[in-house]
Amino acid sequence: MTNKTSVPQAPKRRLSWNDPGFRALIYQVLILGIVGLGVWYLVSNTLHNLAIRNISTGFDFLHREAGFAIGESVIDYTPADTYGRAIWVGILNTLRVSVVGIIAATLFGTMLGIARLSKNWLVSRVASAYVEVMRNIPLLLQLFFWYAIITEVMPGPRSALNPIPGVFISNRGLKMPALQGDALDWMVAGLGLAIVAIIVLGHWAKKRQEATGIIFPLVRAALGLLVVLPVAGWLISGASLSLEMPVMKGFNFSGGISLSPEFVALLTGLIIYTSAFVAEVVRSGIQSVNRGQWEAAEAIGLPRRRLLRLVILPQALRVIVPPMTSQYLNLTKNSSLAVAVGYPDIVSVVNTTLNQTGQAIEGILIIMAAYLTVSLSISIFMNWYNKRIALVER
Amino acid sequence: MSTNTATVQSLPPPRAHQGVLGWLRASLFSSPLNTLLTVLVAWLLLMAVPALIDWLFISANFNAQNAQECRQSGGACWAFIAEKHRLILFGVYPYDEQWRPLLASIILIAVIVCSCIRWFWKPFLGVIWIVALVVVGILMWGGVFGLSHVENSRWGGLPLTLILATFGIAVAFPFGLLLALGRRSHMPAVKALCVVYIELIRGVPLISLLFMSSVMLPLFLPEGFSIDKLLRAQIAIILFAAAYVAETVRGGLQAIPKGQYEGADSIGLSYWQQMRKIILPQALKVVIPPLVGIFISLFKDTSLVVIIGIFDLTQAAKTAVADAAWRGFSTEAYLFIAFIYFIFCYSISRYSQSLEKHLQTGYQR
């Protein structure tokens, strides 16, 4: 650089190339300038292209009539509704499959992770084989596979598989009995009350133990409350609960809860794929706890359940929670593969929308905004939880 | 303590801990719960494995002439794969020229294998990569050396999957490196740009980037200028992978103790010298295993280009399945390419594990 020669005699280094601060300033102005120019170039191109293709901009299209049907939705939806509502249906469908998937993958994956560490040779081998196979096959391929199994290999509704009474598996998806009646609301209320009571009881038990040393059998009490209060709700309502069984009517089933083949294929794929990763997270978490901790806990005579709950799990969770968060985020993002099997999630609905309206930019922005909101919410919650369980150092 | 030093003949281990019986007792029937689990798992395996082997091999049909004949055998129809394997592996590439994608795939696999051998970890590996990628380009496109020109809309199958993954990581790596350095930079504007980029890309699914590249890139470009579908997908994959590479490398940079930076500063190295000679060699060594992991997931993620209609391995399998004359054998087709993906990903992940063990030595006392 030619600037190197311009070393002034006075400490007036303000405008010298040798001053790191000045240099950094120049670099940043340059980089921002380049990025700004690039963005301006792209935006002006885009505006020009939109103008010559007669594509309108803005989010007005959200209020227009969508005119396409959506296979399944959590809220009421007809083709006469607006694009805005259609997209909202897509978002809710994404949330539905993600929430169910996260819960199931956590439970199943944790079991697998523990199974991989089992002293039982057969169990640990089967678990590791499962993990290795599922981790190394693309999720999309697994989704195609499950969808093909359900729609091609499964029998029609007339000869549906019936593994448990009331549950039918056919190429139209999964049918399950549904609970019906006024008692449902009362039972949900009872469940909510039970959860509140358990939290209050937990606080009280902890305080009492700190003051007197007497241990309250919290787990048993909690289980009791979880059973007793909903049953009480059921009794109050006059026990008006009935189980609605799916029955064969004409060419298909009616009644009961019906899960579409698309939903079942997507959910199965997501759970099976993600649980393999969850298993690895859980295994590494448990293995990270020093052997000495097990031995020390055994030495002071803690029973096995308490040993796990008070000594091992709190330490393992510190290692488990951060990678688990990214698995949850991955599952949520992977649910976008729904478009491949035709489950109407947000990506699929927005894709239809932008094919109809041509408003690609707004559509993509909506998808990104939706995922960013969900991702940020999950990571904020998990970070809060992580902070709660993190090691408190003096 | 008493000082009884009389030598006592050591006893053999108890019978119950020896031999096959001992092993069985220790690893399968050590407690009632374990016995129950063993019986349960063994029962499940007995139900599943013989049926599976029967379907896969014994009642399978390997050389049926048509779908009718295949269906009668009751097992898997591998004749379908025999019939369609060239479509699945090479897509709609001109039939007589399919030795070219085959050779290109072999070259790509060879370069990946070479990059895995430590003896090759020298600067000339970069030269090998550049030469290999150029040769692959020539083989696939043709148009020179007497090879007929093949448009990339006719590329497909395994070579396309390999190309998307290897070109993807090859370009994303330097880009991600710069992003990671930018994110650790002391310049607030640079840092902010990198953070926004990384978080935005990591927060959204790859599919939305692929859609974006397929519908929005044409809008971004000046009128009359267009880039083809394959390149658009490749750009989306690169942008996506770069953000993940950046976060991994950042982890490595954070693992380098402050003293290393201070040492480099104290001998008066410039920023780039400091990074090139001191920091990056150490940081990259730490993150090689996770980088291999990113390569594996990128390899799997290339299957998503199906969604925007690019003819990769998965799409080729779907096309083979859609043939009306051979309807109903999708399980076989998907198992076949699942096996291909598994071979690649499993060997790379095994390699990554062994590498981790090798590289750890420096940190263990």
Description:
The complex is a heterodimer of chains A (394) and B (365). Chain A contains twelve helices and seven strands. By secondary structure, chain A is mainly alpha-helical. In chain A, the strands form three sheets. A three-stranded antiparallel beta sheet of chain A has the order 1-2-7. In chain A, α3 (121-135) packs across α7 (261-288). Chain A is globular, with a radius of gyration of 29 Å. By secondary structure, chain B is an all-alpha fold. In chain B, 69% of the residues lie in helices and 0% in strands. Chain B has 15 helices and no strands. Classes of the chains: A mainly alpha (394), B mainly alpha (365). At the A-B interface, α1, α3, α4, α11 and α12 of A face α2, α8, α9, α10 and α13 of B.
Q: What would the keywords be for this entry?
A:
heterodimer; A: about 400 residues; mainly alpha; three-stranded antiparallel β-sheet; two-stranded antiparallel ribbon; 12 helices; globular; B: about 375 residues; 15 helices; about 0% strand
Beta strand count of chain A: 7
The helix-strand sequence of chain A is HHHHEEEHHEEEEHHHHHH
Structural class of chain B: mainly alpha
Uncertain ranges of chain B:
none
Tell me roughly what share of residues is in helical segments of chain B: 55-70%
Largest sheet of chain B: none
Which class best fits the helix and strand makeup of chain A?
mainly alpha
Main β-sheet of chain A, in a few words? 3 strands, antiparallel
Low-confidence stretches of chain A: none
The portion of residues forming beta strands of chain B comes to: under 5%
Largest interface, counted with CB-CB under 8 A? A-B, 54 and 56 residues
User: Rg of chain A, please?
Assistant: 29 Å
Helix content of chain A: 55-70%
Distance between the termini of chain A: 51 Å
Which shape of chain A, going by the Cα principal axes?
globular
- Main sheet strand line-up of chain A: 1-2-7
Could you report the average pLDDT of chain A, rounded to the nearest whole number? 84
Relative strand content of chain A: 5-15%
Order of helices and strands of chain B: HHHHHHHHHHHHHHH
